[in-house]
Amino acid sequence: MSWFEVMEQHDYEELVLCQDKASGLKAIIAIHDTTLGPALGGTRMWTYASEEAAIEDALRLSRGMTYKNAVSGLNLGGGKAVIIGDPRRDKNEAMFRAFGRYIQGLNGRYVTAEDVGTSEEDMNLIYQETDYVTGISPSYGSSGNPSPATAWGVYRGMKAAAKEAFGTDLLEGKTVAVQGVGNVAMSLCKYLYEEGARLIVTDIHKDSVKQAVDRFGATAVDPAEITGVDCDIYAPCALGGTINDDTLKTLKAKVVAGCANNQLLETRHGDILHERGIVYAPDYVINAGGVINIADELNGYNSERAWSKIGEIYTSLEKIFETSRTEGIATYIAADRLAERRIELMKNTRSTFLQQGHHALSSRRLRG
Comparing C-alpha atoms, which of 161, 189, 142 is closest to residue 293? Predict the structure, then answer.
């Protein structure tokens, strides 16, 4: 299948390949849908197995951002960028400034932010070349690192999911298995620890695991064991696809709620969770806190306003769980429908507006 065929399948708008030989930049920008507004989505830096894998990830993630921004009530479309490389070894100033120039060339169709493998400092470098970047340092009037906001939203969403599964949103005494303890998950662990939850953690980076053990009294396990441990809540907080045929064989949790994107390897795995009575908080709903926070920058950042909207993730998930129950559908389907209805409504509104404008113009021409 050609890339045009892949893009046509899910109606992607644009795919941009970026390279700068001097700095070593190899990047992909994918814009999925701009019906609701400019495409907003972070820039991920990762050591992909192939260029094809990087493109596939950018496309998949950009589509997820369309749904995330729509269901969060933001007037923004979906886009995503990936930079191919090791974020611990391959970064340099020239790379991110070159990337910023590519973003500037899109003239506002895509607005970036930090993501896995990138940081506030990287966004500051991009900002030297373009205004179409969020999550830069507060000294520039921005909100800074979005990880705490994402973690707060996931924490609130996890409480909503716990209420659906256990009849109460109290997490004290609950065992939460956290797969991946990066910046967002570490903040999440802090919220959970402070409420009295028991933590089981894993990560490919041993220093992160040690930090979680030392700070929160977490129990550490091997990455291959995390989905099979005895727990109430499984929190996928690393890369996607950890809900799959293999992990579903051993999963003991009654709730799946975490900050990772694309947690379901395939949509049918969401159906399996539904059939087994496991409450799944759709990833792009529960982890939207960061994007809600940085989107507020586009209106002149107000932290109280932004964090208040992040808190609404709780009620958004309550509505999704209710729809799932009353209509007998998986939660990911309920969330998708909510996002798609909003996008379709805007498309219809724009179509009507354009038709009215055309009729008015035709009338003026007839009168002339």
Answer: 142
| Stretch (H or E) spanning 208 | helix 206-216
Task: State which amino acid sits at residue 93.
Answer: E
> Is beta strand 219-220 parallel, antiparallel or unpaired with respect to 198-202?
parallel
Q: What are the residue numbers of the active site?
A: 80
**pLDDT (0 to 100) of residue 367:** 40
One-letter amino acid of 228: G
Pick from 339, 319, 328: which is nearest to 164 by CA? 319
Q: Mind listing the pLDDT tens digit for each residue in 295-326?
A: 999 888 899 999 999 999 999 999 999 999 99
26, 8 Cβ separation under 8 angstroms:
no
| Residue matched to tokens 């002339």 | 368
Give yes or no for a contact between 183 and 147, defined as CB atoms under 8 angstroms apart.
yes
Per-residue pLDDT tens digits for 205-230: 999 999 999 999 999 999 999 999 99
Sign of the torsion angle spanned by Cα atoms 66, 72, 74, 80: negative
Determine the longest span between alpha carbons in the chain, in angstroms: 79
Mean pLDDT in residue range 106-123: 94
| Closest-CA residue to 145 (of 260, 311, 289) | 289
Q: Where are the alpha helices (DSSP H) in 141-200?
A: 147-166, 183-195
Answer yes or no: are the C-beta atoms of 113 and 291 closer than 8 Å: yes
**From CA 33, how far away is CA 54, in angstroms rounded?**
19
Measured in residues, the chain has a length of 368
